[in-house]
Fold this sequence. Notes:
Blueprint: E1 4-8, H1 15-25, E2 29-33, H2 35-38, H3 41-48, E3 56-60, H4 62-70, E4 77-81, H5 84-90, E5 100-102, E6 111-117, E7 120-125, H6 126-137, E8 142-144, E9 153-154, H7 155-160
Parallel strand pairs: 1-4, 1-5, 2-3, 2-4, 5-8
Antiparallel strand pairs: 6-7, 8-9
Amino acid sequence: MGKLYVRVDDRLVHGQTVMAWGPTLGIKEIVAVDDVSAANPMLKSIMTMGVPKNYKTSFVTTAEALDVLGTPSENTRLLIVKFPSVLAKLKDVIGDSEMIYLGNIAKRSDTNHQLTGATGIFFLSDEDIKVIDGLVESGLKVCFQQLPTTSMTTWADFRKSK
């Protein structure tokens, strides 16, 4: 059975995904979950254009992700979502993930928490924090890490600073 890694990155699939995270984690399958992108064939085409053929890549809705991730796979998968709120809807199928990596999360109208530094820039809302706290309480590991070669900040360390 393959492993599951989760990444929250509002850019979804991009160069860092396939050039850094894919090889480092041994990824064979990328599952991008975003209802808007999944409904737009042109956007899906643009985002998958630069993905090497050795990765099985799919853009799915949140509902479709429940089916995809609910089906066992021999492939090591990287699940990518734009925002933590999506993870709350997928919590039943990500319970065995190795790690949830918080990547680039741009500022939004409801964000009031920020982490900046060598690991990148991350903006979180109170709701994002509530969702992530719940995932951590259920036993999942969460960290901030921009690239596999940059420093990691654990969720516990972030919470101590708040």
